[in-house]
Structures are given as C-alpha cells and as structure tokens.
Design goal:
Strand content: 15-25%
Bound molecules: pyridoxal-5'-phosphate
Helix content: 40-55%
Strand order of the largest sheet: 3-4-14-9-10-13
Number of strands: 14
Radius of gyration: 19 Å
Shape: globular
Distance between the termini: 42 Å
Order of helices and strands: EEHHEHEHEHEHHEHEHEHEHEEHEHHEH
Mean pLDDT: 95
Low-confidence stretches: none
Number of helices: 15
Length: about 400
C-alpha cells in the first residue's frame, strides 16, 4: 500500500490490477515534473497567454454595501472557456505530453470538463475521446456540439443510469486497455492517487494569486475563504495556499438540491458515508446496502455523489466547514449577483455566493470574505429561465 496516496482514511488507489502500473507511471512522471522548473515555466506560459491569467480579485462594492463584510470575488469566470477547469486540463495535458502520450480521454457529466479537455487537446494537437452518459448527451446538446467542433469524439455510455458516474467507470475501463499511448484527464480532485493531488497542484494557482492579491489590497489575510464543492477542485485550489494560515477559516459549499430532508440533494458531506467509488475512498451518497445513489442539484457541475478525498479529511479534522445551499437559495443569489454587480455567475458558483450572503449577516463590517467565482453563467441561462418559469428541472 502506497502511504502517500492517503489523506487519513481517505483516498487510495482502488483500481484493477491492470491499472496499478499505469497509475504508478503517472505518479512518477508527475512527481518528477513538479520538481522541474521548466515544466512550471511552460504551465505558466499557457496560464498567461492562453487562459488569460492572472484574473482579478474583484472587490464587490455593492454587495459589500448591502451585506456587511468586505466581499472579494476571485474571477475564474474570466478564464478562457469560462471557468477554472482549464487550469487543471492544461496541467494534465502538459504532463501527458511529457510522458510521450498522443491521445487523451476524459469523462464528463454536464460537458464542462469535456469541453475544457477538447480545448486542451486541440491546443496541443492530441487525439481526444470524451465519455459521456447517454442521458447527459441528450440534456447537454450544446456542449456535445462544442466538443465535436473542437475535434473530439464523444462516446455515448448507456450502462447504469447513463450519467457521469457510469461515464467515469467506462473511461477507467477504456484507459486500462489503451494506457500505452493514452492519458486519462480527470476533471476534479477525485479518482485514485495521484489524481486528487495533481488536480490540487494544477488548481493551486487560484489561491496563490488570490492570496497575493488580497495582501496587496488589504494588507492582511481574509477571515474566510469560501468556494463551492462538486468533486472539489476549485475549492481545493482556492484553499491550498491558505491552509497553513492559522487565522483563516474555510467554508466549502455543497448543493442541497430540493433540500437535504427531501433526499434529493448532492451533499456528500452532510449525508454521505465513507465508501469506494472511482478508484478512491471518500464520503459518498449511498443507500443502506452501500449502493451509490444518484445526486440531485439544479447545478450539473455539483451533481456528483461523492467528493475528493482530501476534502473528506479536511472535514473530519474540522479544518474546513462544509455546508449546503438549496436550488432556490442558489438562484436567488445568482440573480442578486447579476443585479448588484453585473456578473452572471455559473449556477455552481452561485451556491458559494448564497452561503456568503447567509454568513455575512452575523459578521462585523471590517471582516473580509474571499470567494471563488468558479465560472460564468452563459451555459446556465436556459436552466435559470426554466426554473423561474416554474418548470421542474430536477425531474
Ligand atoms: C465543474 C464546475 C464546478 C464543480 O467542480 P469542482 O471540481 O468542485 O470545482 C464548479 N464550478 C464550475 C463553474 C464548474 O464548471
């Protein structure tokens, strides 16, 4: 057993024997790459010239006037492709190239990680295959078309519930057969070791920038750092460089869907139990027999029955507080951010915003909250419109 692969009791490498060597070579290449300054120079080059970093840490003046404490937004929505996912994809594809791989595969649910991976593959001239549940392919027509425009092949997965969980299983199976020339680009801080660690390192740029920016603007660290949690990549990247600071507090915001009490939610931290899925041990939504349950949220990006293993550990050690926000609270916060700041956020990011509004009520005005605005909301305009018309998006 590889001790480095665990965060307390969470993490690990729960994969078939056939994949162990592959994971081992990814780990070796990764550990070597992150010690190589040239690798980071290349990564930084693409972050600046292609993704458009650094992005602003924006002081939300009107939100601050209305809600009390100083509210700062880390603008990942301004990145090329409109969210934080591209940071990780470029890191992993640079690693794939370094390993001499010519093909990439990825899983996607809503299609955001599929689009980011297809983008990175086009940028570096790599062959790209995206595994997506048949159900999701139907629901996310526009993103499927985007991936195809970018030159990717989209494989429809019809096993299980034909959604993200099944697409991920299929991608892992396909990888075991093709690992010789293929790299598996995982889209969040989940999966078997070394993926959670890799994704954290490639998303760390969010918090590193935010920390320097807040020190420059305020001359001190924030009181709270807040981010939404699906698999947990924007949040772990946002938290990473602050975690050693004793006086900073952390909040991760999950999706409560129609309400935790209804059973229709995606709050793995509130209601999940430790279990194994997608090569890792973490908190998972499961029934009494240990079957993984279908998560439920208006936000496709938070609609995952688990969470990354480091978050599970940060929960148990009480370093981070995990909370949840319902669909309704999220949509109200989304509209508030539109009207008061002229920013249409992703529905995922609006979950973090909703909790910021809640916590602000009890905070003194001189305190500082830094929130990760993980993505822009263009992709969600239809969902918001249907929600406001009263259609049930959560069928
Ligand atoms: C995918 C996505 C998320 C959720 O994923 P994490 O890995 O938890 O960050 C959050 N926000 C946006 C905009 C996304 O696209």
């Amino acid at each position: 057993m590889n001790k480095n692969s665990y965060y307390g009791q969470f993490g690990g490498q729960y994969v078939s024997e056939a994949l162990m060597n592959t994971l081992h070579s990814v780990e070796e290449a990764f550990e070597e790459a992150i010690k190589d300054q040239k690798f980071w120079e290349e990564y930084n080059y693409y972050m600046k010239e292609y993704v458009g970093r650094e992005n602003p840490l924006y002081f939300a003046k009107r939100l601050t006037e209305k809600y009390g404490p100083k509210i700062y937004l880390k603008r990942e929505d301004l990145n090329h492709t409109g969210a934080h996912k591209i940071n990780n994809v470029i890191g992993q594809i640079l690693l794939a190239r370094r390993m001499g791989k010519t093909k990439v595969i990825a899983e996607t649910g809503a299609g955001q990680h599929g689009v980011a991976t297809a983008t990175g593959a086009a940028l570096f001239g790599m062959e790209c295959t995206i595994f997506m549940g048949a159900e999701d392919i139907q629901r996310q027509e526009l993103n499927v078309f985007r991936m195809k425009m970018l030159g990717a092949q989209v494989v429809s997965v019809t096993s299980g519930s034909s959604t993200l969980k099944d697409a991920t299983n299929e991608a892992i199976r396909a990888w075991a057969k093709t690992a010789e020339d293929t790299f598996y680009v995982i889209g969040s801080a989940v999966g078997p070791h070394p993926y959670p660690k890799m994704v954290k390192e490639f998303q760390r740029v969010i918090g590193r920038e935010a920390k320097a920016q807040i020190l420059e603007k305020e001359g001190r660290l924030p009181d709270y750092v807040v981010a939404c949690c699906g698999g947990g990549s924007n949040s772990i990247g946002m938290f990473a460089d602050f975690l050693d600071e004793e006086n900073v507090k952390f909040v991760g915001v999950e999706a409560a869907g129609l309400g935790i009490e209804t059973g229709k939610h995606a709050s793995a931290m509130a209601m999940g139990k430790p279990g194994v899925l997608h090569g890792m041990r973490s908190y998972l939504l499961q029934d009494d027999d240990g079957n993984v349950q279908i998560a439920h949220s208006i936000s496709a990006g938070l609609d995952y029955p688990g969470i990354g293993p480091e978050h599970a550990y940060l929960r148990d050690t009480k370093k981070v507080e995990y909370v949840s926000v319902t669909d309704e609270e999220c949509i109200n916060a989304l509209l508030e951010l539109c009207k008061l700041e002229g920013i249409i956020p992703a529905i995922e990011s609006a979950h973090a915003m909703a909790y910021v509004f809640k916590m602000a009520k009890d905070m003194p005005k001189d305190q500082i909250i830094v929130m990760c605005l993980s993505g822009r909301g263009d992709k969600d305009v239809h969902t918001v419109a249907s929600y406001l018309k009263g259609e049930d998006m959560n069928k």
